[in-house]
């Protein structure tokens, strides 16, 4: 089945797509930017760059990082980060629902459907 991915462009202020949303979800799960990056086979540097880009694209940070200490550092999604993930996933669900028939039609005429 063809996959639909949603990318949202915010004028000149950045973009949001499935990769960044997945990173936000992994940060929420892992409690750490570096652990979230590792779980996605992403370098520590790349994960931090994406988080920085995400935070700069919105009026308030979506990820709050805490530096180390005895218990080590960590990161959490802010309430705005949690809200963004909820809205993005809702948009994704509605888009998939609205396009399901068309995606099936595209699959039927795709090269992969002829191989079966």
UniProtKB/TrEMBL annotation:
Superkingdom in the source lineage: Bacteria
Residue stretches making up the HTH lysR-type domain: 22-82
Pfam families assigned: HTH_1 (PF00126)
One GO MF term: DNA-binding transcription factor activity
Gene3D superfamilies: Winged helix-like DNA-binding domain superfamily/Winged helix DNA-binding domain
InterPro entries per record: LysR_HTH_N (IPR000847), Molybdate_resp_trans_reg (IPR051815), WH-like_DNA-bd_sf (IPR036388), WH_DNA-bd_sf (IPR036390)
Protein's name in the database: LysR family transcriptional regulator
Species in which this protein is naturally found: Reyranella soli
């Amino acid at each position: 089945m063809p996959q639909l991915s949603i990318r949202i462009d915010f004028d000149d202020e950045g973009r949001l797509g499935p990769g960044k949303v997945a990173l936000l979800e992994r940060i929420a799960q892992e409690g750490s930017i570096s652990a979230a990056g590792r779980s996605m086979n992403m370098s520590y540097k790349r994960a931090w760059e994406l988080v920085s880009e995400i935070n700069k694209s919105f009026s308030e940070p979506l990820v709050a990082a805490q530096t180390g200490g005895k218990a080590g550092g960590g990161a959490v999604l802010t309430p705005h980060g949690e809200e963004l993930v909820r809205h993005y996933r809702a948009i994704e669900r509605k888009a998939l629902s609205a396009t399901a028939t068309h995606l099936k039609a595209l699959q039927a005429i795709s090269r992969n459907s002829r191989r079966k």
